């Protein structure tokens, strides 16, 4: 069952539009930061999806547009053989899918961890960076994100 804290108010949940947009901004920051660990191929499908995600976070793109971009990125990811690049594409797809379902904002953390483990990089340091960015954007969202991440990742206590 989905956590109602990640369900938009207009869908009967507890997530305000402002918080939903903050989660998109955070997911995009997390995804773009992953590019610092690895030389990623520039692909129009990726850059276009990220642009749509940014526009959605500012109220300048429709949710359907973001959903289509996410699906396109996930389809592209299936053609990528290099696993770190594939995980990066998946992180992009999940970040942009945040427009549709806010809990997709956790996808860049999940796929980022998988990518960093393959690259023998410090996934815990990245998680710390990611959570710090969330605190910078919307500190009140940290407890709900932390609660959900505990379900999918080994998480340190942060309180």
What would your notes on this structure say?
With 159 residues, the protein is mainly α. The protein has one domain (25-148). It is built from seven helices and no strands. It has helices spanning 17-34, 44-57, 63-77, 83-97, 107-118, 123-137, 142-152. α1 runs antiparallel to α2 (44-57) and α1 (17-34) packs antiparallel against α6. It is globular, with a radius of gyration of 15 Å.
Q: Taking Cα atoms only, what radius of gyration do you get, to the nearest Å?
A: 15 Å
Q: For the report, how would you describe the main beta sheet? A: none
- State the order of secondary-structure elements, H for helix, E for strand: HHHHHHH
What's the average pLDDT? 92
How many domains, as an integer?
A: 1
Distance between the termini: 25 Å
Helical content class: 55-70%
The gross shape turns out to be globular
Please, how many helices?
Answer: 7
β-strand number: 0
Overall SS class:
mainly alpha
Strand content: under 5%
Low-pLDDT residue spans: none
């Amino acid at each position: 069952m989905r956590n109602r804290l990640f369900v938009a108010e207009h869908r009967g949940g507890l997530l305000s539009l402002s918080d939903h947009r903050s989660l998109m901004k955070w997911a995009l920051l997390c995804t773009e930061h992953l590019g610092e660990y690895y030389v990623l191929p520039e692909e129009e499908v990726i850059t276009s999806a990220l642009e749509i995600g940014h526009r959605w976070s500012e109220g300048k793109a429709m949710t359907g547009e973001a959903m289509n971009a996410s699906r396109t990125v996930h389809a592209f990811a299936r053609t990528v053989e290099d696993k770190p690049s594939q995980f990066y594409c998946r992180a992009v797809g999940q970040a942009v899918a945040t427009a549709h379902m806010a809990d997709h904002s956790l996808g860049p953390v999940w796929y980022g961890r998988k990518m960093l483990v393959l690259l023998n990089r410090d996934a815990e340091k990245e998680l710390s960076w990611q959570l710090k960015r969330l605190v910078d954007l919307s500190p009140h969202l940290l407890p709900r994100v932390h609660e959900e991440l505990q379900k999918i990742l080994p998480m340190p206590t942060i309180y």
